[in-house]
Design brief:
By secondary structure, the protein is of the alpha/beta class. It folds into two domains: 146 residues, Rossmann fold, CATH 3.40.50.300; 62 residues, no CATH class. 36% of the residues lie in helices and 27% in strands. It is built from ten helices and ten strands. The strands form two sheets. The protein has a six-stranded mixed sheet with strand order 6-7-8-3-9-10, with helices on both faces. Strands 2-1-4-5 form a four-stranded antiparallel sheet, with helices on one face. It is globular. The chain binds adenosine-5'-triphosphate and magnesium ion. Magnesium ion binds next to helix 1. This is Amino acid/amide ABC transporter ATP-binding protein 2 (HAAT family).
């Protein structure tokens, strides 16, 4: 029997901006249905890795594969069609479009409908006709997640999706992410909330200066407190 390829493989990738290299020979994988947490202090390359995966920064070497197929040369929208949904740092929603329009703009044929998103985030149903720019930070974050889901992803990439939000909103978002995980969605998540990640992630990858400094499952992560101290400053 053939071994199933991981949904995402980052294979010895180097990348950066202009002449500056930020990611050095970096490898990681996300298997089907797995949640991988990407950790590291500020400026260690988490967002840059997300951009490399979604086609926002060019690789100088290495390869990224989705479902075993290289995404080299593909434009971001083509990568999205391969089943990758991005919830970017800073949300980046269209302030001039309504909630409904923001969601509809990224819709593809598939399992997720507007109603499905509204069931996940009832607040978005209430705000459906409000401009994205008039939403609270938490509502914008819900919209950013909803928008990514509307592309019907098999892998969701979340960059600081709970940052700067009120605790009650954070809890709602973690609950939704748990539901998505239970539904079998594969997730690569960057977040600062280690406590929430401990009960959510299957595996942890810690970046330091653009390299993988540590990786392991949740039990190993709990046991290896020195990792937390050295690389995360907690
Ligand atoms: N658009 C850009 N142009 C040039 N350099 C950049 C750009 N974006 C990020 N960098 C640099 O790349 C390095 C890694 O940044 P990155 O945003 O990937 O880190 P991060 O781990 O996501 O940090 P944070 O936790 O603060 O979000 C930093 O030195 C940063 O200054
Ligand atoms: Mg970042």
């Amino acid at each position: 029997m053939a071994i199933e390829a991981p949904i995402l493989e980052v294979d010895r990738v180097s990348a950066g901006y202009g002449r500056g290299t930020i990611l050095f020979d970096l490898s990681l994988a996300v298997r089907r249905g797995e949640v991988v947490a990407l950790l590291g202090r500020n400026g260690m390359g988490k967002t840059t890795l997300g951009r490399a995966i979604t086609g926002g920064v060019k690789l100088t070497s290495g390869e990224i594969r989705i479902d075993g197929r290289s995404i080299a040369g593909l434009k971001p929208y083509q990568i999205a069609r391969c089943g990758l949904g991005l919830v970017p740092e800073g949300r980046l929603i269209c302030g001039g479009l309504t909630v409904r329009e923001n969601l509809a703009a990224s819709a593809v044929r598939g399992a997720w409908t507007l109603e499905g998103i509204y069931d996940l985030f009832p607040r978005l149903r209430e705000r459906a006709d409000h401009a994205g720019g008039a939403l609270s930070g938490g509502e914008q974050q819900m919209l950013a997640i909803g928008r990514a889901l509307m592309t019907n992803p098999r892998l969701l990439l979340l960059d600081e999706a709970t940052e700067g939000l009120a605790p009650v909103i954070r809890q709602q978002i973690w609950a939704v992410l748990a539901r998505l995980k239970k539904g079998g969605l594969s997730i690569l998540i960057v977040d600062r909330n280690l406590r929430a990640l401990r009960s959510f992630a299957d595996r942890f990858v810690v970046l330091s200066k653009g390299r993988v400094a540590w990786e392991g499952d949740a039990a190993a992560f709990d046991a290896d407190t020195r990792t937390l101290e050295t690389y995360l400053g907690v």
